[in-house]
């Protein structure tokens, strides 16, 4: 059982990394570049204004990180719930999955299906996240 969980976990990690690469690039390159440009210009202001100016420059990057964290946490919660549904469905008869080879295979099959269904949502999730980040950085 732990072998299938490790395999699925690696599959999820790889898919999330691949799906979120454009979003990460946008945050780590585009927004960071703007942050440094903006921060550099802050030093043309009076001493008292520099700190507030730099904080304003950092806000889009911080908000983007918060959006990314929040959305990925929601994805992880959906994934966890779907796997719990599998376990509940298979254990419905009372016997533990670990005590029944047939139930164990049924649980593994359900888990694989659930993970693959959740992975199908990643491209749409990545677009949603990028849209949120793009819209918030304009305001």
Give the DSSP E fraction (strand runs of 2 or more residues). Answer: under 5%
- Provide the structure class: mainly alpha
Query: Which residues form runs of ≥5 with pLDDT under 50?
Result: none
User: How would you state the average pLDDT, rounded?
Assistant: 91
Tally of distinct domains: 1
What would the principal axes of the Cα set say about the shape? elongated
Question: What's the multimeric state?
Answer: single chain
The helix content is over 70%
The total of beta strands comes to: 0
Number of helices: 5
Largest sheet: none
| Radius of gyration from the alpha-carbon trace, in angstroms | 22 Å
Order of helices and strands: HHHHH
Distance between the termini: 48 Å
Structure description:
- The protein is mostly helical and 139 residues long.
- 86% of the residues lie in helices and 0% in strands.
- The chain is elongated.
- It has one domain.
- The longest helix has 44 residues, at 47-90.
- The protein contains five helices and no strands.
- The model has no long low-confidence stretch (mean pLDDT 91).
- α1 (2-19) packs parallel to α4.
- The protein has helices at residues 2-19, 21-42, 47-90, 101-119, 122-138.
- InterPro entries: DUF842_euk.
- This is Protein FAM136A.
- Belongs to the FAM136 family.
């Amino acid at each position: 059982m732990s072998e299938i969980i490790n395999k699925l976990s690696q599959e999820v990690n790889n898919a999330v990394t691949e799906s979120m690469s454009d979003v990460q690039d946008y945050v780590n390159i585009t927004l960071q570049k703007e942050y440094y440009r903006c921060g550099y210009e802050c030093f043309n202001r009076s001493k008292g204004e520099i700190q507030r100016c730099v904080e304003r420059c950092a806000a889009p990057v911080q908000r983007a990180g918060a959006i990314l964290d929040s959305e990925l946490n929601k994805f992880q919660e959906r994934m966890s719930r779907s796997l719990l549904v599998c376990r509940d469905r298979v254990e419905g008869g009372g016997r533990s999955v670990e005590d029944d080879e047939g139930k164990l295979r049924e649980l593994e099959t359900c888990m694989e299906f659930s993970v693959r269904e959740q992975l199908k949502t990643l491209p749409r999730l990545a677009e949603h996240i990028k849209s949120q980040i793009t819209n918030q950085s304009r305001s």
